[in-house]
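Project outcomes to date are best conveyed with an example. Our students and postdoctoral researchers have been running inverse folding experiments weekly, and each run begins with a structure described purely in tokens. The record below, which covers 226 residues, was selected by the lab manager from last quarter's runs and is presented without edits.
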């Protein structure tokens, strides 16, 4: 049996995955759908990813559609090492106008993330949460720092200088993930045939879970609402 080769691809509005196989280019199914995010209910509290002294009095959010803080992924595909290729080009999380852009960034385990500073003052990017803890130190406009994320985790990213800055890097152990576009549409292509557990993750909401069946050459459709 020919070994399949996995690659992660990045677009302007979404991060997705596809399966490239010279032996079976048309194999696999497609999972499509829409995601909606309602306004938070009064008294609703986001999940806590760590317990510690560092707290922000408020958090700036990048001016993007709320659904683009959602990551849709398949939970139970084979783990890293099954012929996947980690992109050599770093993923980007910019510091722009006292915000991390994007606010939510999913990456494949082992990928490097670049943190370019677009602002004309210093930032100091760090994380003290489970996974790859790091402190990139102070750096100014036009400079960048790199960090490899080796362990599956929800990494909460902060700026030591500007406590309102906060973002999330979702490190996945397989490449089956995507971020919806601004209208909430998402697509996972070339999903191996079978029944899988699909998860929709949002940084301040409980996970949504669905069971979905992928069939070679066919499409399955879901509607997800937070």
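After processing, the design step wrote out the following sequence:
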């Amino acid at each position: 049996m020919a070994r399949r080769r996995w690659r992660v691809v990045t677009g302007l509005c979404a991060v997705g995955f596809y399966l490239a196989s010279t032996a079976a280019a048309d194999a696999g199914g497609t999972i499509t759908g829409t995601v909606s995010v309602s306004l938070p209910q009064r008294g609703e509290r986001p999940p806590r990813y760590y317990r510690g002294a560092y707290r922000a009095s408020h958090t700036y959010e990048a001016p993007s559609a709320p659904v683009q803080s959602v990551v849709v992924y398949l939970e139970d595909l084979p783990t890293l090492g099954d012929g996947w290729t980690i992109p050599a080009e770093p993923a980007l999380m910019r510091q722009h106008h006292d915000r991390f852009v994007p606010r939510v960034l999913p990456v494949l385990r082992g990928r490097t993330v670049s943190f370019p500073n677009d602002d004309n003052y210093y930032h100091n990017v760090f994380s003290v949460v489970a996974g790859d803890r790091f402190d990139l130190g102070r750096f100014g406009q036009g400079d960048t720092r790199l960090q490899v994320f080796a362990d599956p985790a929800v990494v909460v990213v902060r700026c030591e200088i500007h406590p309102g800055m906060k973002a999330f890097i979702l490190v996945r152990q397989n490449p089956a993930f995507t971020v919806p576009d601004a209208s909430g549409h998402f697509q996972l292509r070339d999903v191996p045939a079978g029944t899988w557990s699909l998860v929709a993750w949002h940084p301040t909401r409980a996970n949504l879970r669905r069971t979905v069946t992928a069939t070679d050459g066919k499409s399955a459709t879901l509607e997800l609402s937070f």
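The chain has two domains: 29-35+64-81+175-225, 85-173. Residues 85-173 form a domain with the Immunoglobulin-like fold (CATH 2.60.40.420). The training component of this project remains on track.
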